């Protein structure tokens, strides 16, 4: 299997092995498992130590939460898996997480979703808004030249609007025509794009999730906003609340949308299917990586003299990819909180990878090379 084909295929997700081999897995069929195993035993996915094809296949089957290895999978599990998929109409493999690239308001990655489902400790949601088939460009383009909210007195410089004002305008417009009310909401979302991205575009909270039996207007809000030195706490919290107001009416918009939602269908404790429309499906297992490992995957940090700390960078990147098994998005968020709480400022920010490295050293999770400890 050619590296450039696998790297560029949006359907492929990567399973790291214990000894730093990689399996590029595109489906849960016997053929896909064999294909991934063949790739895992060959360059460039094979690490220094050789690995047997049977071992690779058995490892993948185990990661799907199925016992007995490849022989048992073909003998027993494959039929049960097909039956489950047929019962739910899962017949067309698709990428239901990574959205088309233009002007995205919500842009998730498989690992973000998988970590939140498997590692957050929250119940499994019934549905997730991944926006996989939402045309964000169309929404932006519709209001690019004229948007009635742009000059509204309730809209401030951070592209926020008060929730109550938006709801009141929707209700007024909908009295004459329900479609007009929907247009008002569309325009409000378009006018607040940057605030939607800041407040809703993560899996830290559950603003993109619907849970069975839970009030659909209630959600946990965790924006990726950080209080910088010099900004009064009251001003920071006021800004957070404004972003929350935007996310509240964005959630109204999501709930009224027929597009963008996937249904969460657990098969076992280690394999979850995502169901889209017209038979489309995706799948997740714990530990998926979005891309193949590369020493150039992260920006290089520098030491105090400005010289590249290449060996330590590579050591950390490799550890993070193959050995770190926590909820990465949450740890990255905590790293940023730690940086700003310690007095860090944006102009001196050394990059997200270095902030995360320092944070994981501080927590004791990561042991740096002795000469690179900080």
Structure summarized in a few sentences:
With 374 residues, the protein is of the alpha+beta class. The protein has helices at residues 3-8, 30-40, 53-63, 69-87, 110-119, 136-142, 163-176, 178-191, 193-200, 233-256, 310-322, 328-341, 352-363; strands spanning 13-16, 22-25, 92-93, 127-129, 209-210, 261-266, 272-275, 280-284. The chain has 13 helices and 8 strands.
Task: Describe what this molecule looks like in 3D.
The strands form two sheets. A six-stranded mixed beta sheet has the order 3-8-7-6-4-5, covered by helices on one side. A two-stranded antiparallel sheet has the order 1-2. The relative contact order is 0.13. The chain has three domains: 88 residues, no CATH class; 122 residues, no CATH class; 63 residues, no CATH class. The protein contains 13 helices and eight strands. It starts with a helix and ends in an 11-residue tail after the last helix. The N terminus is likely disordered. It is globular. With 374 residues, it is of the alpha+beta class. α7 packs antiparallel against α8, α8 packs antiparallel against α10 and α9 packs across α10.
Q: What's the layout of helices and strands?
A:
Layout (H helix, E strand, L loop, with lengths): L2 H6 L4 E4 L5 E4 L4 H11 L12 H11 L5 H19 L4 E2 L16 H10 L7 E3 L6 H7 L20 H14 L1 H14 L1 H8 L8 E2 L22 H24 L4 E6 L5 E4 L4 E5 L25 H13 L5 H14 L10 H12 L11
Parallel strand pairs: 3-8
Antiparallel strand pairs: 1-2, 4-5, 4-6, 6-7, 7-8
């Amino acid at each position: 299997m050619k590296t450039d084909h696998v790297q560029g295929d949006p359907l492929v997700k990567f399973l790291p092995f214990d000894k730093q081999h990689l399996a590029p897995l595109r489906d849960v069929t016997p053929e896909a498992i064999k294909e991934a195993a063949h790739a895992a035993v060959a360059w460039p996915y094979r690490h220094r130590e050789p690995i047997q094809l049977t071992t690779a296949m058995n490892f993948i089957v185990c990661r799907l939460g199925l016992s007995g290895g490849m022989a048992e999978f073909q003998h027993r599990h494959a039929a049960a898996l097909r039956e489950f998929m047929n019962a739910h109409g899962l017949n067309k493999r698709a990428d239901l997480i990574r959205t088309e690239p233009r002007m995205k308001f919500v842009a998730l990655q498989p690992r973000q979703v998988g970590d939140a489902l498997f590692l957050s400790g929250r119940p499994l949601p019934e549905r997730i808004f991944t926006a996989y088939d939402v045309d964000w460009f169309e929404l932006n383009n519709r209001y690019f030249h004229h948007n009635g909210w742009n000059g509204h007195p309730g809209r401030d410089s951070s592209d926020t609007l008060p929730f109550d004002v938006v709801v009141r305008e929707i209700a007024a417009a909908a009295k004459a025509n329900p479609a007009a009310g929907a247009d008002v909401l569309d325009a409000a979302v378009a006018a607040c794009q940057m605030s939607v991205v800041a407040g809703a575009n993560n899996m830290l909270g559950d603003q993109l999730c619907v849970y069975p039996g839970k009030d659909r207007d209630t959600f946990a809000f965790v924006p990726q906003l950080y209080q910088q030195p010099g900004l009064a706490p009251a001003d920071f919290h006021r800004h957070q609340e404004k972003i929350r107001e935007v996310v509240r009416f964005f959630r109204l918009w999501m709930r009224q949308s027929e597009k963008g939602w996937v249904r969460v269908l657990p098969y076992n404790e280690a394999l979850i299917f995502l169901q889209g429309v017209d038979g489309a499906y995706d799948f997740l297992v714990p530990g998926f990586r979005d891309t193949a490992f590369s020493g150039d995957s992260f920006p290089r940090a520098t030491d105090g003299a400005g010289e590249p700390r290449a060996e330590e960078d590579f050591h950390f990147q490799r550890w993070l990819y193959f050995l770190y098994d926590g909820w990465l998005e949450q740890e990255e968020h905590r790293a940023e909180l730690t940086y700003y709480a310690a007095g860090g400022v944006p102009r001196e920010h050394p990059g997200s990878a270095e902030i995360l490295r320092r944070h994981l050293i501080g927590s004791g999770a990561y042991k740096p090379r002795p000469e690179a400890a900080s």
